[in-house]
Amino acid sequence: MAEQAQMTVSDEVAITIENMNKWYGSFHVLRDINLTVNRGERIVIAGPSGSGKSTLIRCINALEEHQKGKIVVDGTLLSSDLKNIDKIRSEVGMVFQHFNLFPHLTILENCTLAPIWVRKIPKKQAEETAMHFLEKVKIPEQADKYPGQLSGGQQQRVAIARSLCMRPRIMLFDEPTSALDPEMIKEVLDTMVSLAEEGMTMLCVTHEMGFARQVANRVIFMDQGQIVEQNEPEEFFNNPQSDRTKLFLSQILGH
Amino acid sequence: MSDTHAQSVAFVRDTMLPEQAPPASEAGVVKWMRENLFPGPVNTILTLLAIYFIYKIVAGSLPWFWNGIWTTSSLAECREILQGATGGCFSVLTERWNQLLFGFKYPSDQYWRPLVAFILLAVAVAPVLFAHLPRKMLLFTGIYPFLAFWLIWGGTILSPLMVLIGVLAGLAAFRRIEASGFAMAALAGLVTAVVIWWLGGFLASAASGVLALEAVPSRDMGGFMLNMILGTVCVSLSLPIGILLALGRQSHMPIIKWICVVFIEFIRGVPLITLLFVANVVLSYFFPPETNLDLIIRVIIMITAFASAYIAEVVRGGLAALPRGQYEAADSLGLDYAQSMRLIILPQALKISIPGIVNVAVGLFKDTTLVSVISMFDLVGMIRGPILASTEWNGVYWELWGFAVLTFFVVCYGISQYSQWLERQLQRDHR
């Protein structure tokens, strides 16, 4: 694809995951995950529900704790050290399925809160940055409203802008379009595509296979807590290797 | 059937329908009465019955107010004037107002002091209650407790001043060392404050004449003033303590969690009245010998402990009502625990908890009358004791208790109205 040619991937490593395992009680959710993400890579993680794909990206910013193995984000080893966790979280943006905007704050306040309190940026400057990103997601006119007054698609774009205001080097998307009406999915996907074009390192858990074909340079398929297959999107969709992947693709693309 | 639809199943709308005003409803008093008072035979009978009862109550009580006597100096004189007619003897209020409001031992030439403290209370509380007032007013709110103490208890201004300085110095020390660890800083702050208080104690006793008001001991406090003191102090202490307890109960650190759980469950499992008896008799065993803790302070400790346990449970409900996503969003942005609690979680949780907190606050304010049981002469204690026991006013029940009811009602209704206003102010969904 023409667009993909513009998006460069560097050799610099952004995330390393080695032999990572996680259990919920005695339930083995993530089994021996190995994954290296280079800076500028756009990875789509797909798989049936319950396959551990959300859990995997939630481990990267320590919303979930892993019990075994090693995760290094941006050169910082993820351990139980709170300082390291806060450092990683301020470098890694996350967008949730249910937006999770702060309903008691205006859109602008949602976007400036973390820069002001975590990055210690002066309020004025934080507001300028926030307006810049709100313009980028095309809703600067909503800045003084509250999240409850916006549509789902608008809320999700605000959530993306809120993450970007922290100037993250990596963005995680946890099913960002799954809670949206079909009419609103496109506006969110467009925002994500333009983000990818700017070279952001992205990990997206999503069922939007069109998005995967358009922007991903790697698709990872997970099942039962394991990485079953990973490949470039063209190969992945046209020539899947494992039977599990074939079944999944036939179900998801078959209609 | 509309003819557009009649021919076939296929239907294409050419023009979208414009928005229209709802049909003008038939308004008027008659319609309102028909709908709300007389919609059917049963409701009509109930309405008539209710009107009859309201009439009987008003007709029975109006003459009592109307013929009320305000100027005599004893019940006997009232009866003489009334000559058997219905009428209240409100003279007890005009003659004993000072005892009802300030207790019977507070020096009468000093009444202006609690009065000034009461008026300043309004100024101090205003910026806390109304967020749109200038934030600089909070400075006065910070000074107010010390000022009010000096006004009500009297003595040299040096004692509350030194306490204030101790608090400020402790805070300054804490801020200084905060970066190098919370525990160290807290300890340093505490030590600084204690040293200054200790030195200040000497200073205050050495120069006890500096700006001194006539000292009034705690046992002379009484009347509605005592209820106000206890209510204000205990509400303002129990809210922050209750929030801390609620957060502690959610903590991942088992020791903190269990301390909070045990405290809350124990206090909630004990009637307030027993705690007050404990305050009266037993509490001094928990302090070093020779410390002679004021009874009012002991009572304040107990009521505060009681109310904070309840507020903690209310706030915990608010915390539990927040979706997990709010915690995760705050975490994912890199906010630390204190920041996410202060900026994200508590503002929302407290908003949900407002009705419950107000419920506890109103209950607590009314419960301050229980101190009359441990022989403190608050408003109820004054009525039950000195006033009803006096030869002049023995037997004046309705007027006195009516006064007490009205006084408490005004305050509690005010609190409740404020909370409803606040809830509307914080409404963020449909503005």
TrEMBL record, chain A:
Record's keyword annotation contains NAD: no
Matches recorded under SUPFAM superfamilies: P-loop containing nucleoside triphosphate hydrolases
Superkingdom of the source species: Bacteria
Pfam families: ABC_tran
Entry-linked InterPro entries: AAA+_ATPase, ABC_ATPase_HisP-typ, ABC_transporter-like_ATP-bd, ABC_transporter-like_CS, MetN_ABC_transporter-like, P-loop_NTPase
Keywords from the UniProt entry: ATP-binding, Nucleotide-binding, Transport
One GO molecular-function entry: ABC-type amino acid transporter activity
Domain ABC transporter: 15-249
PANTHER family for the chain: AMINO ACID IMPORT ATP-BINDING PROTEIN (PTHR43166), PHOSPHONATES IMPORT ATP-BINDING PROTEIN PHNC (PTHR43166:SF4)
Family: Belongs to the ABC transporter superfamily.
Protein name: L-glutamine ABC transporter ATP-binding protein /L-glutamate ABC transporter ATP-binding protein /L-aspartate ABC transporter ATP-binding protein /L-asparagine ABC transporter ATP-binding protein
Species of origin: Lutimaribacter saemankumensis
Lineage of producing organism: Bacteria, Pseudomonadati, Pseudomonadota, Alphaproteobacteria, Rhodobacterales
Automatic annotation (TrEMBL), chain B:
Name the record gives this protein: General L-amino acid transport system permease protein
Organism of provenance: Lutimaribacter saemankumensis
GO cellular component, one term: ATP-binding cassette (ABC) transporter complex
Subcellular localization, as worded in the UniProt entry: Cell inner membrane; Cell membrane
A molecular function GO annotation: transmembrane transporter activity
Family named by the database record: Belongs to the binding-protein-dependent transport system permease family. HisMQ subfamily.
Spans traversing the lipid bilayer: 45-66, 111-130, 150-174, 181-204, 224-247, 259-283, 295-315, 352-377, 397-416
This protein's UniProt keywords: Cell membrane, Membrane, Transmembrane, Transmembrane helix, Transport
Location (main, coarse): membrane
Membrane topology reported for the UniProt record: Multi-pass membrane protein
